[in-house]
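How a chain folds remains the central question behind the approach discussed here. For one protein, we set the task of working out the structure tokens from the amino acid sequence alone. The sequence in question and its structure tokens are set out directly beneath this paragraph.

_____
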Amino acid sequence: MSSGSVGYEGREPTTIDYSVDSSNIVDHIHWSSWGPQTAVGHGVWTEESCNPNCATGPVTNVPATITLGGVSAGHFTTMTERAGKLDKAYRYPANWALGAN
């Protein structure tokens, strides 16, 4: 899938990249549902402690849930990402995920 593409064109990505610096990636996604209006996937978000710094600090794997919706012209245009304390909403094209595969 190309970076910044709207929807996922019927594909069920196993990884979604939300940030350029790899600080927000949900990986190992398994989709419990994938329908014409909504999709729900569960994966792993790697939380960086950044202590003493982000490059060397320990990381914790946190269960994550991705929900896709807001179908327009056959593509998902809304997404929520929930993992631990993280609860973010995305809307295409304003702040859509950078890429997926």
Confidence is low (pLDDT under 50) at residues 1-6.
